[in-house]
Design brief:
- Helices cover about 35% and strands about 20% of the residues.
- The chain is an alpha/beta fold and about 240 residues long.
- It has two domains: about 1-40 and about 90-130 and about 175-245, TPP-binding domain (Rossmann fold); about 40-80 and about 135-170, SIR2/SIRT2 'Small Domain' (2-Layer Sandwich), CATH 3.30.1600.10.
- Strands 1-10-9-8-2-3-4 form a seven-stranded parallel sheet, with helices on both faces. Strands 6-5-7 form a three-stranded antiparallel sheet.
- Strand 8 (about 190-195), helix 10 (about 205-210) and strand 9 form a beta-alpha-beta unit.
- The protein is elongated, with a radius of gyration of 18 Å.
- The two termini are about 25 Å apart.
- Bound molecules: zinc ion (ZN).
- Zinc ion binds next to loops.
Length: about 240
Amino acid sequence: MSRTVTDAAQAASELSERFSRARRAVFFGGAGVSTASGIPDFRSADGLYHQHFRYPPETMLGHDFFVSHTAEFYDFYRERMICLAARPNQAHLKLAELEREGHLAAVVTQNIDGLHQMAGSREVHELHGSVHRNVCRGCGAVYPAEWVLAHGGVPRCEKCGGLVKPDVVLYGEQLDERVLLASVRAIREADLLVIGGTSLVVYPAAGLVSYFGGDEVVVVNRDPTPADATADLVCACDIAAAFDF
Ligand SMILES: [Zn+2]
């Protein structure tokens, strides 16, 4: 039977206590972790997106669109997906600290913004890739987000002229199997699973957390999730405030 806490200070105190006991906790995070840093959640995108883009984000972030409308894909990608001004918030910073202190084994994230690494986390499994890696399909050369921003139109590899594609899992593409397996392993071996900032409805989130066989599951999310029913503790509050301990 799960217990729900709505007060952020109470949530922080409960999280602090659980993490202090944990030796290999895993944090599974989604878009809500990044929205606290000002990064828009394109999955819950509203009409704003349509004001000067002719297609909905789900279309523009599809594999087929990347192939057929590469220049328009990059217009959207540069303007909406790369947010270099964003900085880690309290949740990112606390997770990095918990890893340094030996309580947290890994972060598994659906986000592509690199904020966990910027905060100092080392073991980060990026299920959907990262805007910070953009790979030449010809020779495999890797370019940072800054390079993509500095090149208008369709970016071409400086070494071979090949088309550069973001190392981001687009709709219609498979997840990287190595990342998926590493995430499963981390979750399976975890003694505490904290799920944060995700509605857990996007594949493969719901499936992945089912590998957890440890002691306690905590959900930190403003809105209800399918995991609430089986979680030991649900913190229905702001995620950055819940990690303020
Ligand atoms: Zn190349």
